[in-house]
Amino acid sequence: FKAEITFGSTTIQSDHGGTSQNAFVAKLSATDGTAAWVRTISSALGGYSSVYRPTFNGDGDVIVGGERCASEWLYCSAFVQLLDGDTGATIWVKDFGPQMTRAVGTVAKDDMYYVSGGFSGDMSVDNLTLTAETAMDAVTIVLDSDAVAQWAVMIAGQADDGIQWRESNFV
């Protein structure tokens, strides 16, 4: 959304005086559709933000993966954000920097978060360092409940890779 968006009596505004396009996450009542809470996902870079398939952890908190870009598909940085399921407050945000430009999905299981996307060049996440073999390689990074990287697996082919979301499966 750009500028502002309203859910019932809740109105949120986009970043940077309404000049950026922001993603949002909303928790709606299952009985009447009213908004329990709505949160803007900041563009941080002044351009736009996007999120892909929010999901829940075992505590009912919401995990979202996405991108923040300075302009349309330029200078992007992937991130993962955990929101409190009751209030929508941010619990933590993990930014992967400009090397990981596609964070297309997250899965939560047993207090671990599996983040998949694509990256290029050299990427360091906490104590892990990865080097892409092509211009864009696929990666899955596992974060613990405090957003600290535990391990990662890289998938490299002959051409640009990356992971795209299709029909609720990682492919």
Walk me through what this model shows.
- The protein has 171 residues and is mostly beta strands.
- Helix content is 2%, strand content 58%.
- It contains one helix and 16 strands.
- It has one helix at residues 15-18, and strands at 4-7, 10-13, 23-28, 35-41, 48-56, 62-71, 74-83, 90-95, 100-109, 112-119, 122-125, 128-131, 137-143, 149-155, 165-166, 169-170.
- The strands form six sheets. Strands 5-6-7-8 form a four-stranded antiparallel beta sheet, with no helix packed on it. Strands 9-10-13-14 form a four-stranded antiparallel beta sheet, with no helix packed on it.
- A hairpin with a 2-residue loop joins strand 1 and strand 2.
- It is globular, with a radius of gyration of 16 Å.
- The chain starts with a strand and ends with a strand.
- The relative contact order is 0.13.
Coarse structural class: mainly beta
Q: Tell me the strand percentage band.
A: over 45%
What's the order of the H and E elements?
Answer: EEHEEEEEEEEEEEEEE
Number of helices: 1
Tell me the overall shape.
Answer: globular
Sheet with most strands: strand arrangement: 5-6-7-8
**Integer average pLDDT:** 80
Sheet bearing the most strands, described? 4 strands, antiparallel
**β-strand number:** 16
Q: Helix share of residues? A: under 10%
Task: Supply Rg.
Answer: 16 Å
Low-confidence stretches: 164-171
User: How many angstroms does the end-to-end distance come to?
Assistant: 28 Å
